[in-house]
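quick one
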Amino acid sequence: MADGHSTPVLGIIGGSGVYDIDGLTNKEWRRVDSPFGPTSDEFLFGELNGQKLVFLPRHGRGHRIPPSELNFRANIDAMKRAGVTEILSVSAVGSLKEELPPGTFVIVDQFIDRTFARTKSFFETGLVAHVSMAHPVCGRLGDLVEAAAREAGIIAVRGGTYLVMEGPQFSTQAESNLYRQWGCDVIGMTNMPEAKLAREAEMCYASVAMVTDYDCWHPDHDAVTVDAIVKVLLANADRARSLVKAVAPKVTGRSAPCAKGCHTALDNAIITHGEVRDPAVVGRLDAVAGRVLK
Ligand SMILES: CSC[C@H]1O[C@H](OP(=O)(O)O)[C@H](O)[C@@H]1O
Ligand SMILES: Nc1ncnc2[nH]cnc12
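structure w/ adenine:
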């Protein structure tokens, strides 16, 4: 199983509008089994500019699965089983700030998790762990993404807070205004618990949020509609693919393990005494936590 010391493998989780990655060599769609159930789709394995890459369309090809029904645990566990060491998530978001118009890319650095109907941890009765989420994304991978964006001629804002709502309905105006008062920058429905689970599974995680709309707070945008979002989404998705192409060779050169601690997040996290651990729970966590459960 991969850990941070392994050869880097870049995992890409593609959000709305990003259902494929072009330019891959040796490409093959393949199922990856997980004890946590079915993943959103098969994984696309290949190489991009010499870098091993594994791609998963978050909602499945053709966008079949809504945010609350995504099997986040299976997706992240299977990424780990596929050898992935660093995950780049690309997502469509609404903007909560005038200065982040549609078309803007934000390299997110914080989240406010307002989701309430999702399983948020790999750990449960029989094996309890508490990881730090103070810094929910990997600064090192963020640096690579920022440099890659510059090289690809893509303007990307470094830093921003992503409010994760349950959905699938868009926000009310009162909610949208509340999130603005909280200082949030963008709003979406998918990056939690994805980021939490990536941390538990000891993988670097970075998120590029691609603005498609101004949400409903904006005086010129009375209501958010999928039609309007999709128009912006298609242009954003092309630039996302260029960004991925530029990120891939940068990951190849990275040293291991992650100096920010992503690959050792479980070192001081498990609290359950050895003699009361549930073997079934421990068994399921062979990929996620095998490094510290040996
Ligand atoms: C298509 S608009 C709403 C939809 O788009 C975002 O998904 P993703 O983060 O996977 O790009 C948003 O979170 C909603 O799920
Ligand atoms: N305004 C919005 N709210 C939630 N998720 C979104 N995804 C894209 N735009 C969004």
